[in-house]
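Weekly structure sync, notes
Attendees: PL (lead), two postdocs, one rotation student
Agenda item 3: pending single-chain targets
PL asked that the sequence for the first pending target be pasted directly into the notes so everyone works from the same version. It is reproduced below exactly as submitted, 611 residues in total.
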Amino acid sequence: MKKAKKLILIGIDSLMLKRIDKFRAEGLLPAIGKLMDEGITSLAYPELPTYTPTNWTTIATGATPATHGIWGWVFDSRQCKAEQIWTAAERGGKKSIILRYPGGWPPTIKDGVVMETGVPNTSPWVMSYCKAYSTRPLRRVYGGMHGQRLTPVKLERPRPASGWKSLPESNRPPLESSMLIEPIKPGKPLELYVLILASSSSGYDTVLITNERSAKSQLAQLRLGEWSNFIKVRLALDEGEEEGFFRVKLLELSPDADILTLYRSQVHSSRGFIYPEEVNKELIDLLGPYLDNPSRLPLALGWHDQYFDDLDYHVNWLCDAAEHLMSRYHWDLFFIQCHCPDYIEHECMGGIDPTSGRYKESEAKRWWDIYRRAYSKMDYMVGRLCAQADEDTLVALVSDHGHVMQNKQVLVLNALVNEGLVVVDESGNLVKSKSKVIPVHPIFLALNDEIVKPSDRRFLINKTIDVLYSIKDELSGVRPISLALKREEAGIIGLNSDEIPGEVIFEVEGGYGVNFHFYPDKGSELIVEPDPQFGVWGGAEGTHGEQLPSVDFSLGTIQAVFVLRGPGVKKGFRAKKPIFLRDVAPTLSHLLDIPMPKDAEGRILHEFFEN
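Predicted structure, written out during the meeting:
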């Protein structure tokens, strides 16, 4: 069988075959469609928990979480206990370029290019979250706005400009306001000044952003609907001053300036996120500032054009960087990842899924159009990257998981409290010193070794499982816990490790999510509507992480997708049953004739090869 000489792996978070098939039937997605026609297409089972870092690590290592050790929200390669495919390739004399692959940083290769951790919107180089500033109340499309990443900033009504030097001409008295840039890391907020002017007698129509009360220190001048150029700032962090870039868009300005709304992108550092450092400077000098994965904030507010403006910049920057690096540096393996569909599913799934409580048939097309924009941009990215492949190059398109609609939540903590396994105080907070069972992860429950006697462990584990299975949705008759088992039994689902952070593992049915907050007024009522007030996700609709990899519910599925084209691969072949994501790295290694990652547990997918 002919071996491939190169690999381009395109990772797209939450990409779903259900969406691809729908949009292809509508005549969209020419690049992804061509890739499927010229190669193989398969559904793929993620590993448990069905999380982002867990499964991108599995794709890169061919190992289960029990082996690579990434159970939760961890994107640090130093925490991974399994060898990654690019490290194995380097052992075989190959060179890799890795652009924002989750868990790819710090670099585990010496001779190649590696770019940042792939944490969605919160990488260590995002210096300040993107923000919405407004004089009017801003509300989520549904639910509430909670968490530092999603909370808008309330602006006071602009006041007469005072103490300014070099004021420009204005047909109305100049007004002023200010915007604070709060650093994520400990440090001093940066105050920028906002000057509101009127270029005609019709009213206020121009905004200047300055770093002091002087028009000569102007950083940007905006009219309604305009983006600024990138603005360079230096944030005073406790660990030292750091340079970063951002841009601003003027979304609303009423003629009397009572309504003023500004949208600011994230502030991203200019250095330190690409190895080697000289390549970092090279790309910034050539392509301009980098913005990481766009925030969920504009999606939560219904500002879809702003989200897609950020996404366009992000995707084009990555594609430009890929083309430049591939043309300038020797490479054998190339990896890239984009997070976009994940945020679309989290924020928009209720608009398209008829099982959702907020679904309206009359509005469904508007929500589907948001999906079309997102998938079309992913197709654009695939097309640009596929253009870099020759006949000796494998091209793999892979996702880490899908999503299913979250219509209800299971009050697991309430169930445990009702049975005396957990004790909470008057505020509803868990009292660890008195609780026999402690939630340690959305799918893991641990015994409290500080108070549980060894002789009681077996009884308490079994009682915990009984409590979980006894929960019932009285309205539907569904028992929402689809699986609950002991840690020592978890090898059958790929969790055969003593390091699993809990003695009991459980999963919920499609349509349900897990809620570990205590509700004192619920009594025996253990099934509730999703509560948007907890966590940075707010009122997340499409969900993943707490369901079995095989779950398929309504318009969603937890199953990922795998498409592969290139030397030795069948053409136009569609698998009848899903593979496992742990099979990807062994299969690619075999086709590339490179060493397999040392800890890989998946199999080589021989059924996808030409005879």
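Discussion points:
- The CA atoms of residues 113 and 289 lie 18 Å apart.
- Residues 304-328 form the longest helix (25 residues).
Action: rotation student to compare against the earlier draft before next sync.
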